[in-house]
């Protein structure tokens, strides 16, 4: 269903300019933006996917991925359709590149989602699968409904958003994993139809000017963004502009969408990227989409004790004290940690549980 959109203005020639993201789409009557879900209808901008989802699932928080935000907890995840980027390597292309609104089979109001999260004993709601930036009105209303019943909110996003809507959006998010796709503007332009600098600006904004916990993911694609030089530049920028405590995840690419001819990322590439980022000064660097216990483990940055031992989404050991400190040297670990692991001291695990919501 359609819903009045925010962040737009009329142009002298009758078009409307969308002010949500740096694409700045200028639309004649009836036209849709590059994201496909924001449309000029009867002289106003409308969000066409409000209240409709491509599906709901209960996931482990580690799948977002978030490793320093209430480890072991569960999260109700959902998305809609469309995207404001055009990544040729998209891992969720069937959702993000869909122009078929019939895919949106699950209808749910913001309050229905909040109550469903409560009913499913989920600790948070994740706005994910496709980029929540493009359904920001729906995400914000849902986040407010969740906060009213004590449910946290997590955004999984590429961070391609203008400053004003970013202020409104991240004000209601408790954590975000931002996909920093590359440290090359050429990569962004060629493979994503976007630009790098707006993403860097949003990363700095989230970390320095909001209460939203930030983690970053870079999907390493062989021959595209995995050179040691680029990885070092990326990690050095994070240390300099955001600080050494921001967790950075290097994730494995699998052939998808318009890049089927490129092989999957070798685990050795992720391991080497992690080493480079640690050498650059980052304290918490992780490998993803592979079985790599060392690369999945949180270590104390002071005494180097293994504090949270992971294998993919499975937590095998949890050694923080109740204040989120290393029990050996009492160093406080950056992040948000409960008094115990997960709910009642037990991790949710690697399960993925589909959920149907009644409207």
What does this structure look like?
With 359 residues, the protein is an alpha/beta fold. The chain has two domains: 3-47, no CATH class; 54-355, TIM Barrel (Alpha-Beta Barrel), CATH 3.20.20. It is built from nine helices and 20 strands. It has helices at 93-96, 110-119, 136-148, 163-170, 185-192, 197-209, 228-241, 267-279, 293-296; strands at 3-4, 8-10, 16-18, 26-27, 38-41, 44-47, 52-53, 55-60, 74-79, 106-107, 124-127, 152-157, 175-179, 213-220, 248-252, 285-288, 298-299, 306-311, 314-318, 353-355. It has a nine-stranded mixed beta sheet. A three-stranded antiparallel beta sheet has the order 1-6-5, with no helix packed on it. The chain has a three-stranded antiparallel beta sheet with strand order 2-3-4, with no helix packed on it. β5 and β6 form a beta hairpin. The longest helix has 14 residues, at 228-241.
Give the structural class. Answer: alpha/beta
> How many DSSP H or I helices?
9
Question: What is the typical, i.e. mean, pLDDT?
Answer: 94
| Percentage of β-strand residues | 15-25%
Total number of distinct structural domains: 2
Q: Radius of gyration from the CA trace?
A: 20 Å
Q: What's the helical proportion of residues?
A: 10-25%
What layout of secondary structure does this protein have?
Blueprint: E1 3-4, E2 8-10, E3 16-18, E4 26-27, E5 38-41, E6 44-47, E7 52-53, E8 55-60, E9 74-79, H1 93-96, E10 106-107, H2 110-119, E11 124-127, H3 136-148, E12 152-157, H4 163-170, E13 175-179, H5 185-192, H6 197-209, E14 213-220, H7 228-241, E15 248-252, H8 267-279, E16 285-288, H9 293-296, E17 298-299, E18 306-311, E19 314-318, E20 353-355
Parallel strand pairs: 9-11, 11-12, 12-13, 13-14, 14-15, 15-16
Antiparallel strand pairs: 1-6, 2-3, 3-4, 5-6, 7-10, 8-9, 8-20, 17-18, 18-19
